[in-house]
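[User] At your convenience, examine this fold.
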Amino acid sequence: MVGADPTGREQLRTALIACGADLTHFEDTDLDKLWVGRYRNVSSLLEDATWRGLSAAGLPPGLVDQILALQGRAASAAGAGGPDTSHAYMRLALAGAPPQPPGCSGSSSAVLLSGGGNNLQQQLAQHLDQPLAVKLPVGRGLSRDALNSSSELLDYVQEQPLHGLGADARRLTVLMTSVLTGVFEDCWSGAAGSADDLLSGAATVARLRPDFLFWVCNALLFKGEEKAQASALQDAVKELTDKMATSWDPALLPGASMPCMLAYAAAGNVAQFFALVRRDARTVTAAPITGRVDISQPLGRVKVVHYTLKVLQLMAQYAPDAPSIPLALGGMIKAVGSGGKVRSTVVMFQDFVLKRVEEFKDQPGSVMGYDELAELYAALDRARCPNLTRLHGGVIRLERAALVLHLQPVGLPMHGPPETEGALRQALRGVLTAVAALHRAGFVHRDIRWPNVIRLPAAASPSPALPPAAGSPDTFVLIDLEHAARADCRVDCRQPPRTLGSWPDAAALLDPTTGAFTRQSDLRLVAGLMAYLPFSLSDSGVRLQQDLASGRIASADAALAHEWLLATG
């Protein structure tokens, strides 16, 4: 028959049998009529085929009746009354408790919370080798050749029919069938791809971020590195210890117990799982917790899924004990504008923040161009003000229309004012110190608000050259300089596109004659930080706010000498 495809026909035959069809009395040519038509897979056949269409294709009536009967089963299973046990299945599969170190009577996440120990590697290896509560499902009749490749596969998977399953349970079975067979095609109603998709991860950011990252409550607990060639496996293992080898920046969460991070390295068709064990303050080693597996073979692919589920079991057990972490190491934060267009992205690393501003020269409210902004950051690098953001490694560049910055220090975002007057006083000291340094350098900020202030806990340092003093208070740092301008800039900012949407009242903020943004405008924005507080401000604080808002204070340096800011507590 013209257009017949023996391989496609046999795939269709196998899938129909798995769904419950009896094809004993039908010829290959009957299936060819389906395959060369528009029914290239069972999913489209069961969803779209009609009696008229099947009859027009010249199929025997008995085969037409069977397909229509299978349609009824599929519709029933996908409906409200059909079984859909996939979520319950996953809960059952992950229900087992991870091992605990000898003598430990605490939480079941003790292995992770220990972060090290002589037996940690052995305990994790034993855990990953333990069976799941139930075996992984594969489609009956679809995987026979793959199952015959190794008797050990039956320790991990079991066959089950695809018909009678709800949509999610069916997808899980189909996915595992694809993992087992290595065939990621539409005829299995699964996602297209290859065996490499088992270990695919997030895109890298300038090769500084791991290829795969998995967070629990913003704690980075599982990551992976991938290489194209099997000979590069050791390079991937080395990158596991070089890139983001801690679950969070320890300086931003002082006193919290750091968990052990789990990871995988993959190169070519070879994959292996590791525990990243911290030996001392500077040394992290990648301790193997599985042997090397060959993902070109069915057993290797299934083991990868099994090991991954055992890792997720540990993650689920750890989640209730995870500390509150406001920023995910390696996580990406996107600022989205109108129409869902991404305006900027921020990725946090342990030593710096990578910020990318799309369409930099066209961003609303901008006054300065790239050259002036680079000059500003150069001036701040010379000033070394601990309360002002600055470049890390001098990285500032244009990538086509996007501005790329590496910024330091790394801190915790302030989403609003502090909870007490004492903390507000400390925060405003930091902000005004930053504003004073900025003004001395000949620039104004133009966007002073709480989201553009970060807090460094007392245990953190704003600079490697400035270690924190014992008992020192938190440091507050003014960030986001992309809307800054020269202090002598006389551009009229009363109308778009020079007006910033974050300004509370442009008329009261700008020079009433020229519409220029001045040093006094910055001080009026600082006054706005003292509004809408969760407590009543003292009389002295109210006077400072009023003096800043009215322009009665001549400069940021003069504001720092105000009695309210000189008070203790």
Q: What stands out?
A: Residues 3 and 36 are 6 Å apart (CA to CA). The mean pLDDT is 81.
